[in-house]
Specification:
Largest sheet: 7 strands, mixed
CATH architecture of the largest domain: Sandwich
Oligomer: single chain
CATH topology of the largest domain: Jelly Rolls
CATH superfamily of the largest domain: Regulatory protein AraC
Distance between the termini: 62 Å
Order of helices and strands: HEEEEEEEEEEEHHHHHHHHHH
Length: 322
């Protein structure tokens, strides 16, 4: 009797909901880009991942790595870090909208939402860290990605209380929709989300992300991954770029920062919450990660009323435009 073929989902990690819930998504910058017929909009590269959604018009996006992408309404493009691009317009359409960055003196014939973002599990663990080629997906008006991105832009422009959190939540919805689409495309998941493509390593990583304060060890994590200690160490380092204990420390520091931001636990209590038996060891690790002691970190947050990683204004992307 023949065994049924494994679907594309078989290569995706277990506990994916936990990983998505723990994913921290924030805009680095966001703007509406409008291009008139006969003009070209050029945007320089940045260290952040780029997200570009074409709302109206057709044209061609030429990426610095030589990739040429055909743009139609509802085309979503995610560019790896340090990839510049230019957009050329082919077809004339009409649009009455809010202008942000404009190429041309006439009414725009192509309208895109362009931005840069971070999607990470800790300060140094980026979801798209291994992305080397552009992601291109064709959505439809029914998916409402344009609505979400326009709402995010409006939140960042308004700069009202909670704007950063609202825009981040909207962007995360877009990323989740992209992940869902990738799950159903053979090979797409492995190519786009390489850090989660090793199912056994992803299983152990999900345990670390869900409960960084637990007393994890290399041996206990290897057991979760159903691997020998040596095989687990080698494969984890290959996928994540560093050892399990270094990654665990980064996850604990991220959790510590979140606790310091949201409640009034003492430094000793925070240390216990994130898995440190020694208060001094926790303070030393936190200082090495954030450059300040935990108490000073909290004081700074209280004094300026802003979180450590809050999103910045859409104007921050203007330096990337020529």
């Amino acid at each position: 009797m023949k065994r049924p073929k494994k679907s594309a989902r078989a290569r995706t990690p277990p506990n994916l909901d936990n990983l998505i819930n723990s994913l921290d998504v924030k805009f680095v910058g966001l703007a509406e880009c409008l291009v008139s017929s006969g003009y070209t909009l050029e945007m320089g590269s940045t260290p952040a991942v780029g997200i570009h959604y074409n709302m109206i018009g057709t044209g061609t996006m030429s990426v610095s790595d030589g990739t040429s992408i055909e743009l139609t309404p509802h085309t979503l493009v995610v560019l790896p870090p340090n990839h510049s691009f230019q957009i050329e317009v082919r077809q004339v359409t009409s649009h009455d909208g809010i202008r942000r960055f404009v190429a041309g003196a006439t009414d725009p014939t192509l309208v895109m939402i362009c931005g840069f973002f971070r999607a990470s599990f800790s300060q140094n663990i980026e979801l798209f860290a291994s992305l080397s080629a552009p992601i291109v997906e064709q959505f439809s008006s029914g998916d409402q990605l344009d609505v979400r991105l326009q709402q995010a832009l409006g939140e960042l422009v308004a700069q009202e209380a909670g704007s950063g959190a609202m825009s981040a939540a909207l962007l995360k919805q877009v990323i989740v929709m992209l992940m869902r689409r990738s799950l159903n495309a053979p090979g797409a998941w492995v190519e786009r989300f390489a850090m989660l493509s090793d199912v056994q390593i992803a299983r152990a990583f999900a345990e670390m992300v869900a409960a960084p304060g637990v007393e994890h060890t290399v041996n206990s994590l290897a057991q979760v991954a159903c691997l020998s200690r040596s095989a687990f160490m080698a494969r984890f380092a290959s996928v994540m770029g560093r050892s399990p204990m270094i990654v665990l420390r980064e996850l604990r520091m991220r959790r510590a920062a979140q606790v310091l931001e949201t409640n009034a636990l003492s430094v000793g209590q925070v240390a216990h919450e994130v898995g440190y038996a020694s208060r001094s060891s926790f303070i030393r690790a936190f200082r090495e990660t954030y450059g300040v002691d935990p108490s000073e970190y909290r004081t700074r947050l209280q004094s300026n009323g802003a979180k450590h990683n809050c999103a910045v204004s859409p104007a921050s992307v203007s330096s990337a435009l020529n």
